[in-house]
Specification:
mainly alpha, single chain, three-stranded antiparallel sheet
């Protein structure tokens, strides 16, 4: 195929008000994700202004969309073929895709929200992320109105979905984890390790 970067991105903020409330809130998961993986300053801004965004504050929404577009565009432009840096955009998505395979109860953003909490938990357990930072992330996600728990999700089906993950390499899955808010890394998680941590969270 042909790889071309966009010359510009058109954002129609008025369209956001036409979305069902649940869809709008679900979209906040990707906003939070960008701050968590790429910019502590942006994460701080989201933390301080999420309630204004939920009230459709035009200035806040414009900044959130602009910052997220710039972050994603910069990552994609630097790594068009997803050889490394671009994979960090998958933060929260490994678990999200597993959830989406076994249940239709969650919107994509909701599944990503749960996935970010799982990834933060794994980051703490691997000694990468301070527990206080994982709690900050989980708290922001929850205050935004997004789910943060695996409770109610069938553990066996979820783990089976992980086993079928296309990014699995033998008994290892490459997970996007956090070293700190604003800095993501890609780490190997064994299926046995993942299973134990999932049971702790469920």
């Amino acid at each position: 195929g042909v790889f071309n970067q966009p010359v510009f991105v058109i954002c129609d903020f008025a369209m956001l008000k036409t979305l069902p409330r649940r869809e709008f809130v679900a979209g906040m998961a990707e906003i939070i994700k960008h701050g968590a993986i790429k910019s502590r300053t942006y994460f701080d801004y989201i933390e301080e202004n999420y309630s204004k965004a939920l009230r459709y504050d035009a200035g806040v929404i414009e900044r959130l969309v602009k910052e997220s577009v710039l972050i994603k565009a910069a990552v994609v432009e630097a790594d068009e073929r997803e050889a490394g840096e671009r994979r960090k955009l998958n933060f929260g998505h490994t678990t999200a895709h597993a959830i989406e395979k076994i249940t239709s109860a969650y919107h994509h953003g909701e599944a990503v929200a749960i996935g970010m909490v799982v990834a933060a938990h794994l980051s703490v357990k691997k000694g990468l992320l301070p527990a206080a930072e994982a709690q900050r992330l989980s708290s922001l996600i929850e205050r935004t109105g997004l789910p943060v728990s695996l409770k109610g999700i069938n553990k066996k089906k979820l783990f089976d979905a992980f086993r079928k993950d296309k990014k699995r390499d033998q008994e290892v899955i490459h997970f996007v984890l956090l070293k700190q808010l604003g800095e993501a890394v890609i780490e190997e998680i064994t299926l046995n390790e993942l299973e134990q941590q999932l049971y702790d969270l469920c």
